[in-house]
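This section describes the prediction task in plain terms. A model, or a person checking by hand, is given the sequence of a single protein chain and must write out its three-dimensional structure as a string of tokens. No templates, partner chains or ligands are provided. The sample shown here is typical of the held-out split.
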Amino acid sequence: MLLLFLTALLRGAGSWALAPQLAADPDSYRLIAQNLVNRGSYSTSLPDQTPVPTAYRPPIFPWALACCAILTKSVSPIIVGSLHVALGMATVGLTWYLGQRWGLARGATLAAFLTVCDPLLCYQSSQVMTETTATFLVMLGLVALTRLSHRGNWQSACFAGVTLGLSSLCRPSLLAWFLLSCGACLVLPFPRARKLACLAVVALTGVLVLAPWIIRNTIQFHRPIVTTTHGGYTLHLANNSSFYRHLETAPWGKVWQAQNLPPIASPPDRPKTRKLDPGRELHRDRLHYEAAWEAIGNQPSTFFWSCAVRCGRLWRLAPHRTSAAESISRQSLRWAVGLWYTGLFCLAVRGLWKLKNAAWKTAWLWGILLAVVLTAVHTFYWSNVRMRAPVTPFLCLLAATGATTLRTTQK
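The expected answer:
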């Protein structure tokens, strides 16, 4: 209870201190939620425009905001901040619960405390983005998969499938975790027939959760879009001639801006008789994919180097500098965050080393698969430190394991 109170205090204070950021809407999530509340349309159209259906952003976070704003009819910063504080508290509680289930005893409290204080999670709770929601859903998924590992019944398999499906609808990269977790059901410590039954139930329930979004997209776009139409832009942002040139010629530490992304050809206009034209979004996504693959094909050696850069940026200790002119206070804060993650990662590596082969034979496996999936996806797509936010509580659990074994060794 003390940890939950501390979470509410820190996250609430952070939201208050960074209130202007809660008022911003860089990825149009609030706009989509507001359109859901006022117009019943999943759209990024402005109030004076005819609603045009979109699949550019994943649906769970806007839906959650819209549900919270049903009474007020306004997706205000207070609504966003309150939702993030509640989800942050739930995430800390689930981290503590998992620590108990995974045999950490007192280490569970340490893992939950590290999650409370984590700089990345604290900062992202003040952003109108999906990190806080995705982190909560990932922890709920780890709880569900842990129950599946211990029980292997149809109820636990359904719970796992539902949570994995929901997490995929929050962050498209987590769809790969869903698919890999289905395959990992084959290594559960049960008879073969039971393993196959678990795999089938997890896969089926996950697909049923994804089905409404897929059906909606099929109706609107005449194509079964499982995730979003944002993938082409993200791949192109990570693989383009401007970024490759930056990697080859720019001095170390210089910032590459997304505004330097080479433009793509404009999608063709539809007949003016059609007011709604979601097909342009699909076409734009395809053009981004084509431009990205063209850049990769033209400069394969730079592409491989960019993969290493993206992997490094995902797991870097200090956040990347966002501007050439950086104040001393901001630089000091970045380095303080870097020191925090240096300690956390060292303890996490020690914890993983102490687990050794047991990590692949226990419920720790699901968290390791998550870290592997996020690394693999963001090796090719655009990455930065915030992309690893969903795996952070798992890293805190590993760090708590390392810390408790370190104390035992000293004794």
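For orientation: Residues 271-276 have pLDDT under 50 and may be disordered.
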